[in-house]
Write a structure and sequence with these properties.
The chain is α/β, with parallel strands linked by helices. The chain is built from eleven helices and nine strands.
Length: about 270
């Protein structure tokens, strides 16, 4: 999540490692980028930040710096590329989000790419090598990517399975940047910025996140995201007691398993005694 004090319109992102430099270098070479990491660790905020940073000063007639698509199992090629629609007595072609980004030179961000159908994922392959083209079969058109276009995809390796995984033929087309949850001091700084809370409180929230993530070794399916810690902080800022805020935003959101909830509640109670 990079700090930017000069332009308030740039989404806040505080760098954890060299991810900003790597992404910037990949963009200069127009190399497609894969963001890999757990839920709520800052992948989407990062790409939004980089899009606004790298695209600043571009043609004001181009409406968007970034086009985001939340992938799902019913996502079709037409959803990405476009389709013909009937308008009145005419049939008109309407670009899909991928085509819009390719045509205008935006960053196209396909979030949770493994959720998409495999026949849909294959459509992006010609955009990820030296050709940088998008075949639009329904129009018998070969669309060459705008010089500023960049393809970015993300996925959560914790959700991998035999049925939902990236094929090697797709993975090897991308530069990969790995994400994880920030260390305690950085995470506290992020929460403080997002929630406008004192650092003392956000350090406790970051400590909670750290300890709950350690519970994965005891059977918890997934550790708490930075996003949920921010939700807790936002509730606290609205006057909700810290223990209650963490219960509803962390414990009950993470799991329905009673034993896991009790384990998380014990950690919450230890950090936020009433």
């Amino acid at each position: 999540m990079s700090q930017d004090t000069t332009n308030s319109s740039v989404p806040f992102y505080l760098p954890i490692g060299d991810e900003v430099d790597i992404f910037r270098a990949a963009y200069e070479c127009r190399l497609p980028v894969l963001l890999k990491g757990p839920t709520g660790c800052g992948k989407t905020r990062f790409v939004e930040h980089m899009a606004h940073t790298l695209m600043s000063g571009r043609d004001e007639n181009i409406p968007e710096n970034i086009v985001t698509v939340a992938c799902h199992e019913d996502l079709t090629g037409s959803d990405l590329v476009g389709r013909y629609l009937i308008k009145g007595d005419d049939t008109v072609w309407v670009d899909g989000p991928l085509t819009q980004a390719v045509r205008t030179g935006a960053i196209c961000y396909l979030d949770e790419i493994v959720e998409a159908r495999k026949d849909t994922i294959v459509l992006i392959h010609p955009l990820t090598d030296h050709r940088r083209i998008l075949p639009i079969d329904k129009k018998t058109e070969i669309l060459e990517a705008h010089e500023n276009f960049l393809l970015v995809i993300s996925y959560n390796p914790g959700y991998q399975s035999i049925l939902k995984d990236l094929k090697h033929s797709t993975r090897q087309r991308f530069v990969t940047i790995e994400f994880t949850y920030p260390p305690r001091d950085k995470e506290a700084e992020i929460i403080a910025h997002e929630c406008q809370l004192p650092l003392e409180t956000t350090l406790d929230l970051a400590k909670l996140g750290e300890k709950v993530r350690h519970l994965k070794a005891s059977g918890l399916e997934e550790g708490v995201s930075t996003r949920l810690l921010i939700y807790s902080g936002q509730l606290i800022r609205q006057g909700v007691a810290p223990r209650r805020a963490c219960t509803v935003a962390v414990s009950r959101s993470l799991t329905d398993d009673n034993d896991s909830q009790r384990a998380i509640d014990e950690v919450i109670n230890a950090i936020f005694p009433e």
